[in-house]
Design a protein that fits this description.
The protein has 14 helices and 14 strands. With 468 residues, it is of the alpha/beta class. Helix 7 links the parallel strand 2 and strand 3.
Length: 468
């Protein structure tokens, strides 16, 4: 069955010819000085659209056919194919599915019958997120929109018979959130890609006849403000024709003025080129970065896709999530928080709880996060679980991850700030100013916090320091 599926793919693509130029918009006459050339030197000069640095918090969604087995994660197909005969994936399939069952057989059960995009969008808004990034296509090749370049392997031809991507885009935008897409450059078992791979990527049949037409299609039809690329590690950016595509995206696409891309466009490109750097999964350097970056991370510590076999200890606690948030924002990054929906189209309660807890925290402490700027110091030199942000003007915020002994917060990095400006200090969510004193000889600022039972939130408290 698998072999027949692949041959159907191959026959279809060999018969459609070279369609790499289709579905592109008409070229817009832009002055030469405003044109970006298809080189990294030129593309890297593009200013980052300012909205991205202001919003800080996004939601990542890994959803696809892998949500049907929902075992092990979104790499189920590849892990199953590469598993040892006595491995956990092989045993799972032998125990639960008939002999000869193929991965394609899962697609009919990707039903999404409970998918309510308005409900999802409301959840993300209440979580305090400002943008949403959906996997339009993961490495399995299945598209969450009815792509005409993914014959027989998309939401229209098999599965929910519904434009999941389009429905979510509309709902997200209706909540005044920004919509973005994840897209995998490669596909594990597409025969055209494998043929290029077997040719050491000296041919580009997959890129010309599948990948690029699909990317032009999804950009033109859905106009995302983020294009989050992945699946780049087997071939160079020249094989993927990455700079050519990005030049079109920046110059002539319908989202040329607002769109941002990450850095996964070929071997040796991550952390070097792109509007923002994602570098590697769960990238969280802990120090200020010279280039805008994003921490794409997961509430499930081990997986991006939904796992039925996850245990409670596999999920981040709200304290762990807020610690990651504080570290990320303090060091100039955005945080992209991933949840994995189920095949039925639900977001399970543990994910909902974490997101709503985050939203509750942000409703009190959001001024320390949204539109914030890195301060001169990120992590306090005396109390290491305090992370700083600022508004770039008069206010500095200290995010305190653990309540201090005797309710006295001691800081080392703010001594000169207190000595020189005699600031007022408050705790976000509480009224009134806090008492403080500075010991310049010892290099310690001591701030008296209120009784913990009177504070507005349960986790990660924010001290606001306002220069006079």
């Amino acid at each position: 069955m698998k072999r027949n599926f692949y041959w159907c793919f191959l026959i279809f693509f060999l018969n459609i010819g070279d369609i790499s130029g289709l579905n592109q918009p008409q070229t817009v006459n832009v002055p030469k000085a405003d044109k970006y050339e298809p080189t990294w030197d030129s593309l890297d000069t593009r200013p980052i659209p300012p909205w991205f640095d202001e919003v800080k918090i996004g939601i990542f969604l890994h959803w696809g056919v892998f949500s049907v087995p929902s075992f092990g994660g979104e790499w189920f197909w590849a892990n199953w194919q590469d598993d040892d005969p006595d491995g956990e994936y092989v045993k799972f399939m032998e125990k639960n599915y008939p002999p000869g069952f193929t991965y394609q057989g899962f697609a009919k059960d990707f039903t999404a019958e409970f998918f309510d995009p308005d409900e999802w969008a409301e959840l993300f808004k209440n979580a305090g997120a400002k943008y949403v990034v959906l996997t339009s296509k993961h490495h399995e090749g299945y598209t969450l929109w009815p792509s005409k370049y993914s014959f027989g392997w998309n939401v229209h031809d098999v599965g929910p018979n519904r434009d999941l991507l389009g429905d979510l885009a509309q709902a997200v935008r209706a909540k005044n959130l920004t919509f973005g897409l994840y897209h995998s450059l490669y596909e594990w078992y597409n025969p055209i890609y494998l043929a290029d791979k077997n040719n050491s990527f000296t041919t580009q049949e997959f890129v010309d006849n599948k990948m690029l037409p699909e990317m032009y299609e999804v950009i033109n039809n859905y106009q995302p403000s983020v294009l989050w690329s992945d699946g780049d590690w087997e071939a160079n950016d020249t094989y993927f024709r990455s700079t050519e595509f990005l030049a079109w995206l920046y110059n002539d696409s319908p989202v040329k003025d607002v769109v941002l891309v990450n850095d996964r466009w070929g071997i040796d490109i991550p952390c070097k080129h792109g509007d923002f750097y994602s570098c590697k999964d769960r990238y969280n350097p802990g120090v200020l970065q010279p280039h805008k970056w994003e921490n794409a991370m997961t509430l499930d510590k081990s997986s991006w896709g939904f796992r039925r076999n996850a245990s409670l200890s596999d999920y981040l606690t709200i304290e762990e999530l807020l610690e990651t948030l504080a570290q990320t924002i303090s060091c100039g990054g955005n945080i992209l928080i991933n949840v994995g929906p189920t095949k039925e189209g639900t977001i399970v309660p543990i994910f909902q709880e974490r997101l709503l807890q985050l939203g509750s925290w942000l409703s009190i402490n959001g001024e320390a996060i949204y539109k914030s700027k890195p301060w001169t110091v990120q992590n306090d030199t005396l109390t290491s679980d305090v992370w700083y942000t600022s508004d770039g003007d008069k206010n500095v915020y200290g995010i305190v991850l653990h309540w201090p002994d005797k309710s006295v917060l001691q800081l080392g990095s703010t001594v000169s700030l207190f000595s020189e400006t005699s600031p007022t200090v408050s705790l976000l969510g509480n009224t009134g100013n806090l008492t403080w004193n500075v010991d310049s000889d010892q290099g310690i600022v001591s701030i008296e916090l209120p009784n913990k039972s009177t504070v507005a939130n349960q986790w990660a408290w924010v001290v606001k320091i306002t220069s006079s």
